[in-house]
Each structure stands twice: as structure tokens, then as C-alpha cells.
Amino acid sequence: MTIHFQPMVSPEACPALVLNADFRPLSYYPLSLWSWQDAIKAVFLDRVNIVSEYDKMVRSPNFEMKLPSVVSLKTYIKPTRQPAFTRFNVFLRDRFSCQYCSSHEDLTFDHVIPRSKGGLTTWENVVAACSPCNLRKSDRLPHEVQMWPAHRPFQPSVNDLHQNGRLFPPNYLHESWVDYLYWDSELEP
Description:
Elements: E1 4-5, E2 16-19, E3 33-34, H1 36-44, E4 48-59, E5 64-73, H2 87-93, E6 107-111, E7 126-130, H3 131-137, H4 142-145, H5 158-165
Parallel strand pairs: 2-5
Antiparallel strand pairs: 1-4, 2-3, 4-5, 6-7
């Protein structure tokens, strides 16, 4: 089946917010979005319910439908209890801020106890650090350079990461998404 967009409408301009069966986003950061193609495919496979729609239509010779702007899964997906240890999740836990100087630029991650001194790559030993601070600290212990993380590193819960993710709303929010996201910021026109 071939689907055609109305003229002057970019498909990328119409992503669908994906909610779990309990009407909570699958993730806040990055926000759980599907392309319009994936949303329509899920509708046809009967995997989602359409919660809200755009005014934009797609048409084929046999049907036409409005593009979904919000969909909810028909089957509940149990969220993971422990988030994966990734560079991105360390940055999110630390709110995209260097734990030594609060800079938001040129972030890397730092082993509080350097690996050369037996430090492990774990939630409890890794923090976000800007490149200048990371270079300055080098492979030394915090007391050797008087550089202490602003917050003690810890293993976050999924909820911790979701809460932090809400502090960084995406550049684009469709008005049909707002009731499901809980950000206090004004919508951009």
C-alpha cells in the first residue's frame, strides 16, 4: 500500500507520542516518539489505540486517515527497574552538568577514583565532567587535587532519570502531548 502526504507537509513534522497502556510516556528523555509511518503501522497491526490526531491526513486509493499525534500501547510494558549504565544516563543523572565546575559544555565522564588506582566503571564511581576538569583531575584522587563532585555518584532509578528528563523538555511539543508530559513550561508557537 502506498501512502501519500498532502502537499507541503513534511512527515517528520508529525511524530506520534507513544504512551504505555497506563497512559504514561514510555520514556521522557529521550521522549518516546515514533515516526508517522511507525505509528500507522502499529495502528494497522492493532498494537496501539489512537488517543489524539493531527489535522493532517494520509491517503491511499483504499483509505484515508488523520495522522496519530498520541498513541497508547494496547499491552502494558513493564518498565525496567534499573536503568542501563550508559554515558547518556550518567549525564542525565548529573543533569548534563560537570560535577566539578557546573559547566554544561564539552561533557565527558570521570572516574572519581581513577581506574589506574583501582576505580571501577560503576554508577557509584563515575560522574559527568567537562573536558577541562577531567584533564585537570587526570588520574589523581579527589583529595590530591581538591576536586570533589558536587553530588555523590549513585545508581539512579528509572524514576530518577525520568524526573531529570522532565527538566529538559524537547524543542517541540505538540499541544496534544501536554496532558501526558507534566512539564510546566509554555508551549512554543
